[in-house]
Amino acid sequence: xxxxxxxxxVAFGLHASALAGFTEGANAYNARDYVRALKEVAPLxxxxxxxxxxxxxxxxxxxxxxxxDYKQAMLWHxxxxxxxxxxxxxxxxxxxxxxxxxxxxxxxxxxxxxxxxxxxHAEAQHALGLMYRYHAAGMPQDKVLAYMLWNxxxxxxxxxxxxxxxxxxxRMTQEQIDEAQALSRAWRxxxxxxxxxxxxxxxxxxx
Length: 207
Prior knowledge:
- With 207 residues, the chain is mainly α.
- The chain contains 10 helices and no strands.
- It starts with a helix and ends in a 21-residue tail after the last helix.
- The model is unreliable at 1-18 (pLDDT under 50).
């Protein structure tokens, strides 16, 4: 029992230390002190700290405190994404979608966008909505799912999703809008998003 208690105390101390280090690094990054941010964040990222990995990936992506290096950006974002960081999952999806530092792979991009979207990530929801709307990246055209995803993203404050939702609503029947609204109300973050609707399929020529 005593050994377990000591292990818990040590583990908590390490976690608290890592949290403090990351907070200092994030604050330095926000203050544009990228040298200090790198000093605080890089060791944590190498130790497996998810938030630090994501921030280090951003630093490489933007060339802040380090030389811009998209391959390193992908490496660190992928590490964070695999631990479940939604922001990193979105970036990984975007890099696969554009072929930035990795071979272009729309299937892989959609998989990562979906992981982020299913955590409630508004930008990922918006991106998936575009793919359903315009039959992009091999996705079936489905106006109901596009509306649903934009509805969710709009609720999180995504202005582009709000505009797209308003535009597509003009090309939907009331039945389709009702279905999309019902799907939006039923969905909860952390659960799978539907992959097809009852009434929204079919190619309308991208109108």
